Each structure stands twice: as C-alpha cells, then as structure tokens.
Amino acid sequence: MEELKRTLEKYRRYTPGSDVGLAIAVILLLGVLVIPLPPFLLDVGLAVSVTSSVLVLMVALFITRPLDFTAFPTLLLITTLLRLSLNVATTRLILSHGHEGMDAAGHVVAAFGGFLMGGDVVIGLILFSILLVVNFMVITKGSGRIAEVAARFSLDAMPGKQMAIDADLSAGMISEGEARRRRKELEEESGFYGTMDGAAKFVRGDAIAGLIITFINILGGLAIGVLRHGLPFGEAAQTFTALTAGDGLVSQIPALLISVAAGIVVTKGGTEGSADTAMVRQLGASPKPLAIAGGTAVILAMAPGVPMLPFMTLAALCGAGAWYRYKYEQKIDSEVDEAPLLETAPTEPTPADLVRVDQIRVELGYGLLSLATGEAAQLSEQIRATRRNFAQDMGFMLPVVRIQDNMQLDPNAYSIKIKEIEVGRGELKPGMLLALDPRGGVPEISGEPTTEPAFGLPALWIPEIMRVEAQGRGYTVVDLHSVITTHLTELVRDSLSELLSYGETQKMLDDLPAEYRKLLNEIVPSQTNVGSIQRVLQGLLAERISIRDLPTILEGIQEACAAGFRSLSHIIGHVRVRISRQICEACTDSGHGFIPLLTLGPDWERELSEALTGGAEDRQLAMDPVRLSEFMRALKKGIEDAVNGGYEPVVLVSAALRSHLRAIVERIRPATHVLSQVEMHARARIRVVGTVG
Asked: Fewest CB within 10 A of the end CB: N or C in the chain?
C-alpha cells in the first residue's frame, strides 16, 4: 500500500489540472499541428472538443458573477488551439486518404457528414455556412464589442470604486481585511474584462480559419482526387465535399458553443445569481408584462390560419404566472403593513449577544424613529460623517454607533449611552427646528423656549416655515438630526479615553508605515508593552489631544523609557513635550491668532508646589481642603472672566504641577487645556489674559 501511494504521488503532478500536466497537454496540441494522427486518436480529440465546449457553456450558465470564471480567457485560447489542431489533422487525413471513402478522416467526421447533412452535400455546406455566419457575424462580434466597452468602463470606474472602498474603510463600515479583498476583486475585474476583450479575437480568428480551411479542403481534395488518384470529377466532388462539410460542422458546433459561453460571461455584468435564475426572476418580476404577453397570445390564436393550440397554451402559462405573481405581491404587502417599524429581536439572542456591551448606543423613543428609518433618515449618515471627522482629527476610528428604539423612553426623547451607561439625554420636537443665538441669550422670535442639550444654552423650538426668518436675523438654526449628532459628539469627546480599546490600539500599531516598524519592535516588548502604549494614548485623549501623529508619540515613549521613566504621568509628560508644536497649534485661538494664557499667581504657585509629597515617580498633591476649595473658586473665576472676555483660556503652570492641576481643572471645565512651561513651543504666539490671584 505504501509503495502504491508513493507511486501515485510521483505521477500526480503529471495528471490533468497540475502544472506539468497542463504543459504536456499544450505541447501535445502543438504537436498535432505537425504530427499525423490516426483516425482513432482523431475521433478521441473531436469527442474531447465537443464535450469540453459543452462543459464550458454549462459553467458559464451557472456562475453567479463573471469573476467566478476568471480562467475563461485561458480556456478560450486552449479550446481554440484544440479545434485548430484537430482541423489541421482532419485536413491532413482528408487530403491523403479521402479517396478511400467516408471513414478516411475518422468516424466522428463521417457521422457528422452523414447524419447532420442527411446525405446531401449541399445541405451540409449550407448548414456550415449558417453556423459560420451566426458565430462570426452575430455572437462573436457582439461579445467582442461588449467586452471592449466593459473593459473601458471598468478601467474608467476604477478610481471612483477605489475611493468608495477607502471611504467605507474610513467610516468603519468595513474592516481592513474586507477593504483588501474588495481592492483585489476590483483589480481582478478590470483585468478580467481587459483579457476578455482580447480573448474575443480568438473566436473571431477561429471562424475565419475554419472558412479558409474549408475552401482549401474542397479545392485541394478535388485536385488530389482527380489528378493524383484518377477519380471521376463527380465522385471526387461528392467524397471530398462531404468530408469537408462534416469536418466543418464538427469544428463549428464546438466553436459556436464556446462563443455562446463567452457571450453569456461578458453580458452577465452586475446580474446577481446564475443566468437561469436571473432571467426567470426578472422576466417574472411583475404580473403586468406576463398578462400583456398572455393577452397577445390569445389575440394571435384567434387570427385566421394561425394554429390555436400553441398560442393558447402559451397564453394559459403566462396568465397563470401573472396570477401567481399578483397574489404573491399582495401577500408581501400585507406582511409589510403588519410588521413593526423596528424589529428589536428578530432571532433568539445567543449567549454572546446577551453579554456583549455596545461601546456607543443611541436609543430613540418611538416618536423619533423616523430620524433613523425611511427615506428621510439622515441620522445614520451624519453619525458616519462624525466618525470620519473623529478619525481625521483625533487619530483613531470610533467604535460603531448602534441606533435602536427604546419603548421605555418618552416618545420624543433620546438617550446616549457609552458602554451601557447613560451619559446624556434630551427631548426633541418632531417637525420643529432648534434656533440659538450665537451671541448668547434667547432668540427674539416667537417659539417654544427650551435648552440646547449639548451645551445647555437657551434656545427656541420654531416651525420649519420660520427657518429663513431666523437665519436672516443671524440665529443658528439646527435640525433634529444635528441636535442628536452634536450632543453625541460632545459626549464622545469627554469619553475618548474610554473608547480607545486594546484591540484598536493593536490595530493602529499594526497599520504603522513600514519605516516605523523597526521603532515599534525596539519598544515592544523590551521596554514597554501594548497595554502601556494604550494607557499613554488614553492619557492624551483624556485631554483632547490628537494621537494621529503616532510615530512621534512612539518616539517620545521610547525616549522616556530609555531615560528610566516608569510612571505613566512622567511618560505622558515627556510625550507632550515631543508633540508640543501640535498641542500649541490646537490651543491657539483662531480668532486672535495667539494662545490666551491664564497663569497662577506666585502665592498659589508656591503653595501648590509645597503641597506636593512623595517620591519623584509617585508625587501627590496633599493640600488643605479649605485652601484647595479657595483655589478652585479662584481658578473658576479666572476661567470665567477669560471666557467672558472672548478668550478660550489655557492654564499655564510648571511641569511638576501640570498633571495635578489638570485633575482640578477637569472638575471645573474639562475643555480647558493645561500646559506646562516646557510644553510651550518656541514659535508659539502667546498672551497672558488673566492671573489666578
């Protein structure tokens, strides 16, 4: 048994379907062009030609999309070469042994010459001519034109399709692996149609070669039969013409099948499913065409001299199909009318579904479901745009936002949850718009007073017809989708550090450019690990600092670890110095062109510094609670005064106090940045707008 297995393994690479087997098969085909074949091998070759053409046609019929048959252009070349080789072999036998009778070129040619022609040479030549015209003028020419246009359109559409894939990837709708698969499929599609455009020329050339070979056989056979073998002209014409017509038919029928297969593949285009399924589904998609076709058949059946039975049979079939389709559409419509707007539990939840935690979720009352469903739904599109903006601004893609209904909420209320915990809630007025005064205060137009949910600003609910009037007075008018999206954006900004998971951090590191892979390999795992990098990135995001410049951040981590820093606050502090230009740019007031600084008075600076206790790696702020409360009140007043003066202040302190003061500022006004003196970039424009005294 073991010996048999070794023998099979030895010869397996020479079997059909292997690389060596295919090479041997092509060499044999080329050898047939110069080596005479006996009639028996010629019969085998012709049988293979007919059977393989039927197989190719069936595969073309049942593929669901053209890219499922990417080997077709190669098969087209091989089958064309097979037919031409067999044509040459048949011609050799006809011219050399045609005077011996109808079996000179094998039994397959004799059978086609006798059965299909009915013993009449003229009929055989006419059939051959018709097949040639159908193949050459109709199918091959049409398939070639379609392949040419498809190749051109596929090439022109490639940049747009690539941009669509990149957009879906940026929006988080698809994974990186799915994006690579789509890009590869797009390249295969373009290459396939381009190859099909050239492969169609094989079929066209095959038809021309068949016509030329036929005339050579007839003229050469007559000359050899009459001049060399002394046959009477009538007998020579009968024998050689019959053999030539049989050879033409046995070669043109497989060629016609292959041409039909090529036409089916290139005309399939974007049709989903196999050809039979697609045609039946689309022809019977509506009852009206079936009913009209059946009525037309009935009218033709009543016409004088027209046979009634076939037309009435077709009319009955079309009528039955139309009736079935009509009843089926009624059933579907009734099921749609009875279905709920949102199906919250279509299937029995699995254990994984029960324990899964949604990172971000927006829950809507039933009165707001139209915002997320139907033709007017814009909430999903705005949320996708928000995720793209976060990816560009903050450097990582937010988790997918799940939108669902919640019947426990008030009809017009919505709730925003992060990791299953509610972080915000609001109430909207369907059919109304939210008007705000950018200068502060309540807009001076008629409307229903309310509070803007994201920032707590006074606002008014106004009807749609007052939009133009409100905008004309300089007020900001916001639709319901934007109210939810803005609220969601602000809440997510406050929770960015929680949303950066270990898996997302690992994905960001895996997507680093190749030139930074060596840096990452030096850091992980010798100096730090992915979890520590995640905590550093979370510390930056907690202060709304973008992590888009990940290579520079990694360089800062590497330098901090090499300098012996082990505490998280020290590593983050060193990274902040490395990206100081980026931080200062983000803190620059766009309206004034400088960083508005709020400094600490010398007394508070000294008192806070003296309150630091512990070692260098683990320092804590141990300040008297009464004095800490006084400092917080003074700091809050200083921030409010700067804001009332039209500035977005940045608190400036020493490097030792920065992280501790940030913890205090976060309780007062989380959006306010706290910078240390060493983080001020040399080219940053600054101005002191206040002092905490």
From this structure: N
Cα separation, 303 vs 580, whole angstroms: 91
Residue among 101, 128, 100, 124 at smallest CA distance from 113: 124
Element (H, E) at 584: helix 580-587
Q: Please confirm whether the linkage preceding 649 is cis (ω < 30° from 0).
A: no
Residue 478, strand partner residues: 434
**For the stretch 92-131, what's the b/e string if a residue is b when 16 or more beta carbons lie within 10 angstroms of its beta carbon?**
bbbbeebbeebebbbebbbbbbeebbeeebeebbebbeeb
Over the range 310-346, which residues count as b (16 or more CB within 10 Å of their CB) and which as e? ebbebbeebbebbeebeeeeeeeeeeeeeeeeeeeee
Q: Check if the beta carbon of residue 570 is closer than 8 Å to that of residue 563.
A: no
| Helices and strands: H and E segment counts in the chain | 26, 14
Q: Reading across the β-sheet that carries 686-692, which strands appear in turn?
A: 673-676, 650-653, 595-600, 686-692
- Residues 491 and 415: beta-carbon distance below 8 Å: no
Q: What is the 3-state secondary structure (H, E, C) of 176-198?
A: HHHHHHHHHHHHHHHHHHHHHHH
CB distance 380 to 403 below 8 Å = yes
User: Per-residue pLDDT tens for 562-617?
Assistant: 888 888 888 888 899 999 999 999 898 877 889 999 999 888 888 888 888 877 66
What does the alpha-carbon distance between residue 692 and residue 651 come to, in Å, rounded to a whole number? 9
Cα separation, 240 vs 214, whole angstroms: 10
CA-atom Rg of the chain in angstroms: 40
Q: Which residues pair with 432 in a beta bridge?
A: 463
User: Is the confidence at residue 319, as pLDDT, over 80?
Assistant: no
- The 8-class DSSP code of residue 356 comes to -
DSSP 23-81: HHHHHHHHHHTTS---HHHHHHHHHHHHHHHHHHHHHHHH-SSGGGGTTHHHHHHHHHH
pLDDT single digits (tens) 631-682 = 899 999 998 888 888 888 999 998 888 888 888 888 888 888 999 988 888 8
pTM over 0.70: no
Q: H-helix or E-strand containing 436?
A: strand 432-436
User: Are 631 and 608 in contact, with CB atoms under 8 Å apart?
Assistant: yes
State the burial class of residue 461 (Cβ atoms within 10 Å of its Cβ: 0-12, 13-18, 19+): middle
